[in-house]
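Reviewer 2 asked us to include a model.

Predict the structure of this chain.
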Amino acid sequence: MDPVVFLVQCLNAVQYGLLLFLVASGLTLIFGIMGVINLAHGSFYMIGAYMAFALAPLVEQAIGGGFFATLAVAIAASVVFGYILEWCFFSYLYEREHLQQVLMTYALILVFEETRSILVGNDVHGVRAPEWLAGTVPLGGLMTYPVYRLFISVVCVLVALGLFWVITRTRLGMTIRAGASNREMVQAMGVNIKLLYRVVFSAGVALAALAGAIAAPVSSVYPGMGNQVLIICFVVVVIGGIGSIRGAFVAALLVGFVDTFGTVFFPQAAGVLVYVLMAIILLWRPEGLFRTA
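Predicted model (structure tokens):
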């Protein structure tokens, strides 16, 4: 393989893996700490993408903001939406069996998809990237690479660093890690576990929505996009270890490289290589790569 082509594929793999990390980090927090199998998590990714599409003209008209103002409004709206959703629905699932959690969250998928269809229809929509991010950078010869894809990688890295700092260096992160290990003990020590769950859930929704919003200019906005990302994010969570942010980061990059280079070298088998990777890792380490947040 030509070195420049190899570099392009590596950049694509990193960008895809980092984007998966944004979605999977929220999923692993919700699953690992709250114990809820949330099949609707992919819908938050879809909602973020559709907000990037639908809110852009409204934000432009209201405050004269552009892409970044739209991102800020979308993140704020997703935090509020996550808080309300946890309060109205997910707070009743913690003591329920996993089957009831699956049924409830699957019902939410249907509700979100039908609501999307009513509000914006079933067409495929495009989202424009900011003008100053719409160019390319030369990589040698005739090859170039989109600036916006580099921007996605930078945003994901910054969010990942911020998330690691919160989890490992703050009191909130200490409480979250303790809650993942022994929620009864955390509650007995006076921590408001209901508020903690709502904060964690809102953060998970915001991370998924942010991923959808920044991915919209490169992937377009289309019906069912959340269901596709949900499956691969569950693979990331299982490989990395349930409840582990570090594991989600490593696993997302592994999945990104396997999927990207699998498509290049083994296009006919590309769809199953990620699941083969998951099977191999689970045979080696049934609990995933890492055990704790």
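The chain has eleven helices and two strands. The longest helix spans residues 3-34. We have added this to the supplementary material.
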